[in-house]
Amino acid sequence: MTDYPAARTADDFRTNLAAVRARIDAAAEGAGRDPGEVRLLPVSKTVESDRLRNAVAAGCDWFGENKVQEVKRKHAELEDTGVKWAVIGHLQTNKAKDVAAIADEFQALDSLRVAEALDRRLQMLGRGIDVYVQVNTSGEESKFGLHPDDLAGFLTELPAFSSLRVRGLMTLAALSSDAERVRRCFRLLRDLRDRARDRDPDLVGPGELSMGMSGDYEVAIAEGSTCVRVGQAIFGARATPDSHYWPG
Ligand SMILES: *Cc1c(COP(=O)(O)O)cnc(C)c1O
């Protein structure tokens, strides 16, 4: 396993961020891509606000969070910093109100019920947010997201929700040490994006691909990722098992 050094001070964060960014840039160049096309979204789940303040001082202006309760608390604690929040975990309709109020981006849209609830709350607040549609590319039951076969129909319904600005697609690859299996998940997401675009260029907005995490972001970039969601390689290893975030 890769070992992920913990970061506490702003200097620690500068070091880790620069190291991850250098690997992102190298992966993009290796794939013949412009590194400027790949956004780094730091995933701050389980990391407390005092440390996040140091990450902001080191230049982070966005954080990704998986759970609504946690992002709600941190949003209040860090409001003075102006940092923006991306919700990247499955949402229940009864939490749509909170996400509408505090998130600038929602990356895990996977049902029309959630689209409807979120859009209604956003309309009430007079604001809009960027959304990514989550697709289950691994076939693992523990992963949220639409079945690939349901994506095209789903995308055609989204223009009805005018406060949701569709940016593209998001996925979690199989948690596997088999690099080819992981790569197939990313390739599938890209193919789905390309096919949707061929059908109608407006269906997936600018067609962003949010894919890749600490353990697999270089493969994701080789397959076309435009947003990597990286937690442990920036903040240090997480004690909480991932099953807490992706319940089976
Ligand atoms: C936790 C999480 C990540 C980041 O995982 P790391 O291993 O910390 O890089 C990315 N995406 C989602 C949806 C997550 O929940």
Automatic annotation (TrEMBL):
General function of this protein: Pyridoxal 5'-phosphate (PLP)-binding protein, which is involved in PLP homeostasis.
Disulfide bond keyword on record: no
The protein's name: Pyridoxal phosphate homeostasis protein
Family the UniProt entry places it in: Belongs to the pyridoxal phosphate-binding protein YggS/PROSC family.
UniProt cross-references to PANTHER family, sorted A to Z: PROLINE SYNTHETASE CO-TRANSCRIBED BACTERIAL HOMOLOG PROTEIN, PYRIDOXAL PHOSPHATE HOMEOSTASIS PROTEIN
Domain Alanine racemase N-terminal: 16-238
Lineage: Bacteria, Bacillati, Actinomycetota, Actinomycetes, Mycobacteriales
Classification via HAMAP family: PLP_homeostasis (MF_02087)
Source species: Gordonia araii NBRC 100433
GO molecular function list: pyridoxal phosphate binding
UniProt cofactor(s): pyridoxal 5'-phosphate
UniProt-listed Pfam families: Ala_racemase_N
